[in-house]
Amino acid sequence: MKKIVGVRFRSGGKPYYFDPGDYELKRGSHVIVETVRGVEYGTVVGEPREIEDEKVPQPLKPIMRLATPKDDEQDAQNREKEKSAVAVAKEKIRKHELEMKLIDVEYTFDRNKIVFYFTADGRVDFRELVKDLASVFHTRIELRQIGVRDATKMLGGLGSCGRELCCHAYMADFVPVSIKMAKEQNLSLNPSKISGMCGRLMCCLQYESDTYSWLNRKLPRINDEVITPYGMTAKVQSVDVLRQRVRVIVDVNDEKEIEEYAAEELKFTKRQGGGNKKDRNDRRSDRGEKLIKEELRELAELEKKDN
Questions:
Q1: Reported pTM
Q2: Looking at residue 240, which CATH number applies to its domain?
Q3: In this model, does residue 116 exceed pLDDT 90?
Q4: If we measure between CA atoms, which residue out of 216, 195, 217, 165 comes closest to residue 303?
C-alpha cells in the first residue's frame, strides 16, 4: 500500500497526486511541489489516503514542503500580476489584430513562465505577439489554445439551474455527453434547452443517464401495442419513467378511452435498446417533419463539437 494526497493548483482544476511523506496534511493545506512546469504552489484537496501499489499514479513525486507565510505572499503577488498581465495581453492582441479571445493568464509560482490561455476559431499566427509579450514581461511566454468547454470551466458562472457551473465547481474531467441521453430522459430536444453556457450539451445530462436507461428498458415505447390486465389490446400514449406508469388508449364500445397502468401490469416486448426505423418514425408522427429535421441538424452539430 502507498499513501498519496491530491493537490489542486487552480479553482476547479484537476487534482494531481503526490507522496505526502511525513508531512501532516489536511484539506486546505498549502504546499510546494515540483511539477513538469517547475515549482508550483498548490492546495491539498483531501486527507492523505492509502491505495494499492498497482493503482499508484506514475510518476509519484513527493511534497517538497509545507507553504510558508512568504510563499503565501508570493502566490498572492502572482495573482495580482496576472490581472495586470491580462490587460497588457488584450492590448497587444488588439494591436496585432488577431482573431483570438484571451481567457486567462497564469504565472508559475517561481515566475519563470507565463501561460496565456485563449480561444480561436482556427489557427492563429501569434509569433509577433509572443515577441511583444516577452519584451514586456522578460520571462518565458506560452500561448495555449483551448476549447470553449475549457474556457467556460476557467471562467465559471451560473447555470440554468441557478447553481455554480459543475465544470468550474468540482469536475476534474469532462464526461462524454450525447443526444441519446436527453432522449432517454424525455427532455426537450430544443438545443437551447439542453446546451450549457459553453454552447455544448450540458454535462449534467450524464448524471442520471444510466438510471433512466435502466428504467426505460422496463417500459414500452410510445405508440407500441400492449396487452392490458383485462386482455385488451391498447396503444401506448405516454410513459412516466420515474413512476413506471404507462398511459394507454383502448377501444371501448367503439370509443377511445385513456387508462393508466403500472408497467408491470402490462404485457409487451421489453426494450433491448436502439429501436428500428419504424419505431423512430412512429415517435415522430405527431410533429412536423420539417421542424424535426432542423432540430436534429442543430443537435448533430452540438454532438459533433463535443466529440
A1: 0.71
A2: 2.30.30.140
A3: yes
A4: 195
How far apart, in Å, are the Cα atoms of 32 and each of 15, 23, 36, 106, 172? 14, 12, 13, 17, 21
Give yes or no: residues 230 and 254 share one domain: yes
Helix (H, G, I), strand (E, B) or coil at 201: strand
Contacts of 68 (CB under 8 A, 6+ apart): none
Where is pLDDT greater, at 61 or 277?
61
pLDDT of residue 278 exceeding 90, the answer is no
C-beta atoms surrounding 90 within 10 Å: 13
Average pLDDT, the chain: 83
**Residue reference for cell 465544470:** 167
Domains contained in the chain, number: 3
Helix 69-96 and helix 127-137: axis angle, to 10°? 140
Q: Domain check: are 58 and 98 in the same one?
A: no
pLDDT digits (tens, 9 = 90+) for 170-197: 887 888 898 989 988 888 888 888 898 8
Q: What is the residue whose three cell numbers read 468540482?
A: 170
274 band by pLDDT with thresholds 50, 70 and 90? very low
Out of 146, 177, 203, pick the residue that ends a domain: 146
CA distance 119 to 101: 5
What's the domain range around 34?
A: 2-67
pLDDT (tens digit per residue) in 44-97: 988 888 888 778 777 788 888 899 999 999 999 999 999 899 999 999 999 998
Q: Using CB atoms within 10 A of its CB, is residue 59 exposed (0-12), middle (13-18) or buried (19+)?
A: exposed
Q: How far is residue 144's CA from residue 240's CA, in Å, rounded to a whole number?
A: 47
Q: In this structure, are 94 and 53 located in the same domain?
A: no
